[in-house]
Design a protein that fits this description.
heterodimer, A: 260 residues, alpha/beta, Rossmann fold, six-stranded mixed beta sheet, 8 helices, 31% helix, B: 265 residues, mainly alpha, MetI-like fold, 11 helices, 0% strand, globular
């Protein structure tokens, strides 16, 4: 299955945690590829190991066994060419919006001058022009998450990892940001791995949905989503959409605990 | 609920309590070596101010306090950063620190004067010793307070430990460090005065003792007043620095959490 255009290639990934009560198996036999420019969502209930998977991909956690490769190079630690957007915006309150977006530029010494122009362009893209000199605490939750997305893209990473980025937002803001994320993705065609516990969000956004079941975390199915883009919010009521959602939900029905 | 805020009333209240004090001293014929009347304190303040004697000693005590504050804070910050950075440094040094901390540092003042003499050095060392702990503790706690998600973000960008310290841990620690500095400032004034009590050739603490020996209690009160003003001025400098530096910290809207421990010595 693996070919050269794959940005991410995961094979036989296993993650165990040592606890005082013994070994806990968090992830087992995880295998998938993400192609260049593909938008892949991983959907699963809380505690299925989604965030562990993301941390391994981001180089923040070592895998116990198996292969994780980015552009055919094994991920052994944090890398400069991965952008991460976390569930909370994780902005620094002492930095302005612009300086928050420039954080990766400062850390990786990519040159502030060029970075600044890029940051302003990204902020304009997420609809935050005019807010660059504000501080994060002056912004709403949705606006803060847009700053975080701009920051995730500023260093032009090979891939953007998103860990339930809209999970903490209200439903309306979340729908708005889903539309916006799709528009950004269509503009930039950045390779995205998007983790969520919302089946609808996963189907709405992704080219392909990886279904993850818990204890231990395994990927039980790859569901391609053929709905043409750009997808509007009324796609949620299209039969094809409902069918895919049903197919995914079937994996969890026995266990429950997943939102539509 | 309406809050009564009237600056004129404050002044009236102050004048009334001074008048009450004055009247009580005169009517009850309290000897001035027990409690001088405010008018006597005012006269003593005026005499000392005109002769320049207060100012001369004021500069000496202020210098001791500021040097002690700078020395104590610097050492506390460096050691605090080392303790926060490394669990093994903490493991080996923490017992000594706990032991040293549970000792009343003012009790060291006689020893410090023996070691460092009657001059400036012993006052600076004494002030530094007392200023040291509040900042040490706050530095360690502050540097370890950085939000885990933010640390993960920095790590995911392949930031070095030095970058994480400079861009994240240090700014995160600033609210704690500023609170520690405010306490340290008040404490260094205490340290300087105590060392002057033990043995000194100059300074407001020395002056208090010499006034005490000559039963010039009004003069003593005048110096206490100057010391209070000095403490207040030093503190308000730090408060204005804190407001500037920590404009982003939501807890700044509430009053400084340092205020509660300031009275500790």
């Amino acid at each position: 299955m693996a070919h050269s255009a794959d940005v991410i290639a995961v094979k036989n990934l296993r993650k165990e945690y040592q606890t005082p009560r013994g070994t806990v198996l968090a992830l087992d036999e995880i295998g998938f590829n993400v192609a260049e420019g593909e938008f892949v969502a991983v959907v699963g209930p809380s505690g299925c190991g989604k965030s562990t998977l993301l941390k391994i991909l981001a180089g923040l956690l070592p895998a116990t066994r198996g292969e994780v490769k980015l552009h055919s190079v094994a991920i052994t630690g944090p890398r400069r060419d991965i952008g991460v957007v976390f569930q909370s915006p994780v902005l620094f309150p002492w930095r302005t919006v612009l300086d928050n977006v420039l954080l990766p530029v400062d850390v990786q010494r990519l040159g502030r001058e060029a970075g600044r122009a890029r940051a302003l362009e990204l902020l304009a893209m997420v609809g935050l022009q005019g807010f660059e000199h504000r501080y994060p605490w002056e912004l709403s939750g949705g606006m803060q998450q847009r700053v975080a997305i701009s920051r995730g893209l500023i260093h032009n990473p090979a891939m953007l990892l998103m860990d339930e980025p809209f999970g903490a937002l209200d439903a309306m803001t979340r729908e708005g940001l889903n539309l916006e994320l799709q528009r950004i993705w269509l503009e930039r065609r950045k390779t995205v791995l998007f983790i969520t516990h919302s089946i609808a969000e996963a189907v709405f956004l992704a080219d392909r949905v990886l279904v993850m079941t818990p204890r231990p975390g395994r990927i039980t199915e790859h569901v391609p989503v053929g709905i043409p883009r750009p997808r509007a919010l009324d796609v949620l009521s299209v039969p094809e959409f409902g069918g895919i959602v049903q197919r995914i939900r079937a994996h969890f029905n026995a266990k429950g605990g997943l939102e539509a | 609920m309406s809050q009564l805020r009237n600056p004129a009333l404050r002044v009236v209240l102050l004048a009334a309590s001074l008048a009450l004090w004055e009247a009580a001293v005169r009517l009850l014929r309290i000897p001035s070596f027990i409690l001088p009347a405010p008018s006597q304190v005012g006269a003593a303040l005026y005499r000392g101010a005109v002769s320049g004697i207060y100012l001369q000693h004021f500069w000496i005590t202020l210098g001791e306090t500021l040097l002690g504050f700078a020395l104590g804070s610097l050492v506390a910050f460096v050691i605090g950063a080392a303790l926060a950075a490394s669990r093994s440094v903490e493991y080996f040094f923490y017992p000594y620190i706990v032991m040293f901390q549970s000792m009343p540092k003012v009790a060291l003042a006689p020893l410090v004067v023996v070691w460092f003499g009657l001059g400036l050095t012993s006052k600076v060392v004494s002030a530094a010793l007392i200023a040291f702990f509040p900042l040490l503790v706050n530095t360690v706690v502050g540097l370890r307070s950085a939000d885990e998600d933010r640390v993960d973000l920095m790590r995911s960008l392949a930031a070095s430990e030095v970058q994480i310290f400079r861009m994240l841990r240090l700014p995160s620690a600033l609210p704690f460090i500023m609170a520690g500095l405010e306490v340290a400032m008040v404490f260094s004034l205490v340290g300087a005065i105590v060392a002057e009590f033990v043995g000194a050739e100059a300074g407001l603490g020395m002056l208090i003792q010499s006034r005490n020996f000559s039963m010039d209690v009004a003069g003593e009160f005048a110096i206490l007043f100057i010391l209070a003003a000095m403490g207040l001025a030093l503190n308000s400098v730090l408060v204005s620095v804190r407001r500037r530096v920590l404009f982003w910290d939501p807890s700044q809207k509430a009053e400084s959490n340092a205020a509660s421990i300031k009275g500790g010595l």
